[in-house]
Amino acid sequence: MNSIWFFEDVNLFKVLCPHKFKKYKSAHCFDTYKKQDYIYFEEEASNKVFLIEKGKVKIGYYNEDGSEVIKAILTKGQLFGEKAILGENTRDEFAQSIENTTSICPIGVDTMHDLMRDNQTFSFKVYKFIGFKFQKLERRLKLLMFKDAKTRLAEFLEELCHEYGYDCQKTGDKIIQHPYTQKDIASLIGTSRPTLNILLNELKEQNVIEFNRKEIRIYKKMA
Hints:
The protein is of the alpha+beta class. It has helices spanning 12-16, 22-25, 109-118, 120-146, 149-164, 182-188, 193-205, and strands at residues 31-33, 38-40, 48-54, 57-62, 68-74, 79-80, 94-97, 102-108, 165-167, 174-177, 209-211, 215-218. A hairpin with a 3-residue loop joins strand 11 (209-211) and strand 12 (215-218).
């Protein structure tokens, strides 16, 4: 299954990037960011949306006590800052590069509205993306608020199966080839990296999963 979970095998960068449209091609540019660079901050004016050409971006916010909550980690082909399309005036989250070679395509809200007005199919895909993304975010926030770390990991692995998993024809196991580091996964399920390692190793010892840096195998008998 394609990693762009909300778009039925469509890479958003290929579909939405303005350099694909003659009218906007001459004014189109990319911005580059290094690891820990911010693309935008909370309370900043919300007047653009962003497409990831390459690299990785985390989206999050800070609690009153200053602790960081990670809402999403996004990779190549994905869109963020999309609430600007819906009329958001200021950001209620931050976006930060977490790789040294992140390349972003910024798109002004007016340009997006023009593209959506001129192309109904394009407009439908954008709104479909926003709807599915909000559903996914709501599920993740409920997990963080109401479930323990072990349950959060189990449900996150199930989510990864839907987004990145495929069946191994020889064994029937579920193979998940994903873009996340263990640090990313720990952030997304709201736990520490040492705790995540303990939980993953427990599942490995129970013969539920096998894992390495970029792949998780869920054995058929447990899938």
